[in-house]
Amino acid sequence: MLGMRQIFEYHPVIGYRFIPVIKARVPHEGGGYLIQTNNKGFRCTHDVTEKKRESVFRVILFGDSFTAGDGVSNQFRYSDLLEQRIPQLEFLNFALPGTGTDQHYLIFKEYAAHIEYNAAVIAVWVENVRRVGSRYRLYQDDQGRDVLYAKPYFEFDNGQLVLRNTPVPREPIPESELSKEDERLVDWGGRFLTLRNVADQLGFLNMARRLSRYQPMPEYKDPQNSSWRVMRAILLEWIRSCAKPVVLMPIPIYHYVECMSDPRHYQARFRELAEEAGCILHDPLPDLTAYSPEKRRGFRFKNDVHPTPQGHEALADSLRPAIEKLMIDGKTGGLKT
Prior knowledge:
The chain has helices at 4-7, 65-68, 78-85, 101-112, 128-132, 180-183, 193-202, 204-212, 226-241, 254-257, 264-277, 285-289, 293-297, 309-332; strands at 8-11, 15-18, 23-26, 33-36, 57-62, 89-93, 119-125, 136-140, 146-150, 153-157, 160-164, 186-187, 246-251, 280-281. With 337 residues, it is an alpha/beta fold.
């Protein structure tokens, strides 16, 4: 992720957010992309207001960099594409790169719980199960050096979810100061990304994964996995606190989109969760895997795993029927109020 000081600022509850009301160009292998932030410090062309326009169907959207749109300009993200295609639809995009589902819940409570909205979409990149289980995260500073920052996190205390590590420490933490226990609680992110990319370009890893049915997300295999239990509890509490319908959308990592790995474990966990929470589950994976292998490979950049404009197009096409149904139900009184 881009150096923290360039486009982000400290936030005591979430950890950080975009600097409000800026326009900036971010270097990227795709040629660079433009970002625009709103009054609350999120990549969105709409300011966050307590009241919505009467004629607008407002959807609040949460996620990480896959939904914030790392690699593409604002107008090419799946949320913005849906706005362009569906009249009277407005997305308030609260996604924030480098964050986990725990932080997304905090963003909801801090900025969105008390505003008017018609529906919520919680987009969970499936790798977030690891971010929820971590207390520190690796970033790069403005000079490209690895730095560790503490993050807010939830844990169980006598069976109840309890928020820890707030206010979030402002300054980075030297890796040398971490205990052995703390090292286990770091989301190291892409520390070895360069080596993986070289292997991917040569095709060795991808071939091995297809042959072995490599499982990149074993946390979902066991319903009692500690990280999954925390993520599940966060999502249950969040969804049940929403006054309006919720769409839960697990965004698959490319291993599943490109049919290198078996997705059944994570799909089962999210299906069980949606049934228990009483929310709408939208799984885009069947739509994404319906494309040809060549098109699916084009859904991510050559080196960066984030969605290309084509990847966002495919996500928008997949999500569109669910959003349109919500809008129709809203007009006919089928939505909860």
